[in-house]
Amino acid sequence: MLDKLQQLGAATIASVQGFGRAALMVLGALWGRPRFVKAWPLYIKQFYVVGVLSLLIIVVSGLFIGMVLALQGYTVLSKFGAEQMLGPLVALSLLRELGPVVTALLFAGRAGSALTAEIGLMKATEQLSGMEMMAVDPLRRVIAPRFWAGVVCMPLLALIFNAVGILGGHLVGVDWLGVDAGGYWSAMQANVDLHEDVLNGVIKSMVFAFLVTVIALHKGFDAVPTSEGISQATTQTVVTASLAVLGFDFVLTAVMFGG
Amino acid sequence: MTTRKLEILVGAFVALAIAALLLLAMKVANTGVTGSDQSYKLYAKFDNIGGLKVRSPVKVGGVVVGRVASIQLDPEAFQPVVTLEINSSYSNFPETSSLSILTSGLLGEQYIGLQPGFVDENVEILADGDYIEDTKAAIVLEELIGQFLFNRGNQ
Description:
A: mainly alpha; B: elongated
């Protein structure tokens, strides 16, 4: 009984310590003015690695998810003679839920795991300690560019995902299944609100971007500096980030659309 | 890769994201048709508003001229008071105009149909804050069925 209690206490303390270290890491990285001008090449490199290289998987997934949504929605809607509502169905599911969530999950798998592995390897090969020896703050030189790249790029990727998905829905719904093109767009415009749907989706993706990036950076920075530790940290990044995204998605949905 | 090449690729990425945002804002959400335009307010009391909601359209002959801005209950008369926001480009409805709550299709959403009235020298034009007196309540399907059954029972 006491052993179980002790395990529970130890697990709680460990997780709280994890939160604390993650917060200290982010604070340390962001302390003071970001040196965008001096460290410009570092930032550009990370924007390229995190944003541009994730573009392909985001565009392809967005296209296919939009197409599948249109295909599945059409089979149900055509039974009620409501094919005109295909546009709002595709647009609202993408803007409110699938865009931010699927982008965040893909981003955690594609960019988050890469960030963790890179930083973990830097730690294992003692590059981070080396920087400290040379009086270069690894938090500001390594963590800060990656943090900003993740936080800025993921909402942009989610926007691209949404747009490509809606075009994919158009491809299947209008060009293949023969829904009227005017009806597809006009029903969408009548039912989608810029603040209620588009803006809330963007806010969601910003929250997810922060979560995924911080978890990925923290897991890498906190990794046990062995090859096993790095592989574990990478796995943990994907698992923890995905769970955090799905959990926060429920809370955000309840706050934004539940009332 | 050189910084220049990276900068070009990142620039293209950001431009793509801005294009996606513009597509979502303009083509999907369609801002700027109503909402940001100038509008004026009209009020109307109904006996029953049925399933009317805030942001339901106000139509004249099928053309959307405004939206329902708010729905409140008059605390004394216990009647719903509906506030309509009408686009300022349609500002010459006579005070003899009537409102009715209609349903688009069998299962569609409810909207307000505005029927412009006659104009002569005694009739004024509706302005901001005016009440439209002539209103028809929404048809509630259950009441209709109840009346039908009642009539059948009398025969």
